[in-house]
Amino acid sequence: MRHATEHADVPTAELDTALRGGPFHVALRAAIAARGLPLQRVQHHLSRHGVKVGVTSLSYWQQGARRPQRPESLRAVRALEEILQLPDESLIRLLTDAHERTAAGHPGTRSYRALIEASDVLNRLRADLGRPCDDGLHTLGHHEHVRIGARRELAGREAHHIVRAHRDGVDRFLAVHHGDPGCRPQDIRVRALENCRTGRIRWDQDTGVLVAELLFGNRLRSGETFLFRYGIEDGTAGPSREHLHRFCAPGGQYALQVRFDPAALPAHCHRFTQPSTAAPRSGRQELPLTGPHHCVHVVEPRIRPGIVGIAWAWE
After folding, report:
1. What is the 3-state secondary structure (H, E, C) of the chain?
2. CB neighbours (10 Å) of residue 139?
3. For residue 58, which of 39, 45, 74, 71 has the smallest C-alpha distance?
4. Do residues 253 and 282 make contact, with C-beta atoms less than 8 angstroms apart?
5. How far apart are CA 60 and CA 22, in angstroms?
6. According to the lineage, what is the superkingdom (predicted)?
7. Which residue(s) pair with 159 in the sheet?
8. Do 71 and 87 meet the contact criterion of CB atoms below 8 Å apart?
């Protein structure tokens, strides 16, 4: 077994504390600082162990914006224990503990960095599909129905869109789904329900972002309206604690309903708004569960740029 006491500069008191109690990103950051290694050198050492990890990913790991999950990433964590001369399983254990806390109903929140990272990934996936940020559609109405399953998981959702083209030739819509931490985007299914069919699908494992083309079957003229509906079947992550939607442009009405399985009712729910990813949440309002339907909802008469969502807490 390797011991952190093998070198005089490792461990520090901060590193000792972080390795005992975590979280993972704090312990990793403390270990890298204690060794005095720049991230480029850490990456170099990993490559010598036959593991490829980018400097950006290492930076995200030590900031807490991303957590190693894929087999290759977990191989990197075990190599880091050796490179940083830490006890066996010290970093892996913190990842396992974090996963168990999530499974028990205490998932991490979508931090500012996580939202920024998801936005960066979304831009990359859009570019991969050759889709600009401006899809040529104006939202007249957007109704979203979210289902939370008996395991407290995001089981799925349906979205009904009413749009108007503001340029000629628009023939598709890019649906975006952001799964909860630990989701498996490769197992998420997209269903075209009305007036569309599914086209190309792309996803990012680390952030859980999935994008799917919904093809209309005809090209809209500028000013022409269109209605379509699609569904997402998820159920691949642990307990969910919120659902939010980010709008980049103003539009018409937005309605969000979250329905809970009778076997998994939350302790309380509330709505929130956020002008931007960098701004604090505001507009908090408690939402009581409605009678036999076990659901809560919010209605925004006019969409404004920013974030609208519903959050809930489990007992």
Report:
1. CCCHHHECCECCHHHHHHHHHCCHHHHHHHHHHHHCCCHHHHHHHHHHCCCCCCHHHHHHHHHCCCCCCCHHHHHHHHHHHHHCCCCCCHHHHHHHHHHHHHHCCCCCCCCHHHHHHHHHHHHHHHHHHCCCCCCCEEEEEEEEEEEECCCCEEEEEEEEEEEEECCCCEEEEEEEEECCCCCCHHHCEEEEEECCEEEEEEEECCCCEEEEEEEEEEEECCCCEEEEEEEEECCCCCECCEEEEEECCCECEEEEEEEECCCCCCCEEEEEEECCCCCCCEEEEECCCEHHHCEEEEEECCECCEEEEEEEECC
2. 17
3. 39
4. no
5. 16
6. Bacteria
7. 144, 230
8. no
Distance of alpha carbon 302 from alpha carbon 226, whole angstroms: 19
Packing angle, helices 55-63 and 24-35, rounded to 10? 120
Q: Are strands 170-178 and 189-194 parallel, antiparallel or unpaired?
A: unpaired
- For 152, the token pair is 């407290």
**What is the reported pLDDT for 221?**
97
Number of neighbours of residue 205 by Cβ within 10 angstroms? 13
The pTM of this model reads: 0.65
Going along the chain from its start, the domains and CATH numbers come out as: 4-103 (no CATH), 112-313 (2.60.40)
Q: Could you report the average pLDDT of every consecutive run of 10 residues in the chain (315 residues)?
A: 41 73 84 90 91 88 78 84 87 64 44 65 88 88 98 97 97 94 93 98 91 97 98 95 92 98 94 81 88 93 94 89
Q: In the numeric block, which tokens belong to residue 175?
A: 């649906």
Distance CA 183, CA 67 (A): 12
Q: Is 23 left (phi over 0), alpha (psi -120 to 50) or beta?
A: beta
What's residue 8's pLDDT? 39
